[in-house]
Design goal:
Residues 131-147, 156-167 have a biased composition (Acidic residues). This protein has 416 residues and is α+β, with helices and mostly antiparallel strands. It is 27% helix and 16% strand. It has two domains: 48-120 and 141-299, D-amino Acid Aminotransferase, Chain A, domain 1 (2-Layer Sandwich), CATH 3.30.470.20; 319-402, no CATH class. It has helices spanning 29-36, 98-101, 105-108, 165-171, 192-202, 206-223, 225-235, 284-301, 326-330, 341-355, 378-388, and strands at residues 6-11, 21-24, 40-44, 51-52, 55-68, 71-76, 80-83, 153-154, 189-191, 254-262, 268-274, 360-364. A hairpin with a 2-residue loop joins strand 4 (51-52) and strand 5.
């Protein structure tokens, strides 16, 4: 263990920055005994994050998973950039400053330096703010109610350490306007578009960072794929009273909120994944973004009414095709058009879903990440086969060589 490293401790089953503590590598027995009595998660603290005008920030990204078997995931084109309200510095004396180290909106919204993003609308007349230690939470003041602890508890009993050159350069003046964004906008919450404009003004590669973030999200989903698929299959009943075509595979979906931190080398670090990300709208920006988020998500999912008897998907009788192995699907010896009804049902579901994506981008299925699975599931291999053979191009009118003769011609081959 590195003797000068810092660590962050998060309590289990908590949220909104409650109970988070910064820890040095060396702790007293008293502190260790206190920690052992609680359940929590320890992560290496990213000591040199990328800063925006001297302020620490993180990204809230929205990901919709419409299925885990096969895995199908989409990322929303916009997201939130949440900034701290006090300039960043890492020193012994700064460890209690929650609004410097924690990017949580629930923490920073109660700071007198918090500037709401009005999304281009005229700002409200500022009201005089009491000192931070006397700020009282007003439940009507914000839609995202979440009480937090009074301070970021520092649990080190050793002597203070001096700040290094990085902290001196990052600290700046406390009297400067916080979080000056693109075009002079001074707000504590940006959009990804604002971040992209800032990166371009600083000569940073935004698209390279976004590609790394997408890889991080896909790897995270694959890491938890096995237990989720197992629980999903145990809770689903695919038995039918009467013989017929395969039942629809999609029985549920999930919206995740991925929180990502970026360091000085433009490497993304996963902070956490939220299964119930807040959809409250505490500002015009939140309302605009989250309204489109939910509307496009429901269109993407394509909720269908339950039918006791599922109608046959294909008008003509489909010739019986033997089920091939996952290994053969991954090979080049099998033609896409030779697959059977069950396989083409998976492909058509993926294609129809893609046409309904709206403001979402599909990040999986993706051939680059296919090899990361411990177990190559049959449904994933079917979609991988489809992507290798042309993906969406298979449904173009001129590509009849890629489709079986019994498959009806699709009316649309591009997004509606």
């Amino acid at each position: 263990m590195e003797p000068k490293a810092w660590w962050i401790w998060k309590p289990m089953n908590s949220s909104c920055g409650r109970g988070i503590k910064l820890l040095p590598s060396h702790l007293s027995n008293k502190v260790l005994n206190r920690l052992e009595q609680k359940q929590g998660l320890v992560q290496r603290y990213v000591e040199r994050p990328l800063l925006l005008d001297g302020y620490k920030f993180d990204l809230r990204l929205y990901v919709v998973v419409t299925s885990f078997d096969p895995l199908k995931a989409y990322i929303f084109q916009e997201g939130l950039v949440r900034l701290c309200t006090e300039r960043y510095a890492l020193s012994q004396s700064s460890l209690k400053k929650r609004t410097m180290h924690l990017t949580n909106y629930s923490v920073n919204k109660r700071s007198s330096k918090y500037v709401p993003n009005r999304d281009g609308k005229a700002p409200k007349a500022p009201a005089p703010a009491p000192p931070e230690e006397e700020l009282l939470y007003n439940e009507e003041d914000d839609a995202e109610e979440c009480p937090t602890e009074a301070g970021l508890t520092e649990m080190n009993e050793s002597e203070d350490e001096s700040e290094d050159e990085f902290n001196e350069a990052a600290s700046g003046s406390k009297e400067e306007p916080p979080n000056a964004g693109p075009n002079g906008r001074a707000t504590s919450k940006w959009t990804l578009k604002d971040l992209r404009e800032h990166f371009e003004s600083q000569g940073l590669d935004y698209w390279a960072l976004l590609a790394k973030i997408k890889e991080l999200i896909v790897k995270t989903l694959i890491a938890v794929e096995t237990p989720i698929v197992s629980a999903w299959h145990n809770g689903a009943n695919y038995q039918r009273a009467k013989p017929g075509p395969p039942a629809p595979n999609q029985t549920c979906f999930e919206l995740y909120g991925f929180d990502v931190l970026v360091d000085q080398k433009l490497r993304p670090w996963l902070l956490e994944v939220n299964t119930c990300p807040s959809l409250s709208s505490s500002s015009p920006l939140d309302k605009r973004l989250k309204t489109q988020l939910v509307a496009d998500m429901l269109t993407l999912v394509g909720l269908q009414p339950y039918l006791e008897v599922t109608p046959h998907r294909f008008a003509e009788k489909v010739p019986r095709a033997p089920r091939v192995t996952a290994e053969r699907l991954l090979s080049s010896g099998l033609r896409l058009r030779d697959l059977g009804e069950a396989e083409w049902s998976l492909i058509l579901d993926a294609h129809d879903e893609y046409l309904r994506r709206g403001s979402y981008e599909r990040i999986f299925p993706d051939l680059k990440s296919q090899e990361l699975f411990r177990t190559q599931r049959y449904a994933n291999c079917v979609l991988a086969k489809w992507l290798r053979e042309g993906g969406e191009d298979c449904f173009l009118p001129e590509r009849v060589d890629l489709r079986p003769n019994w498959l009806p011609l699709q009316l649309f081959s591009s997004a509606c």
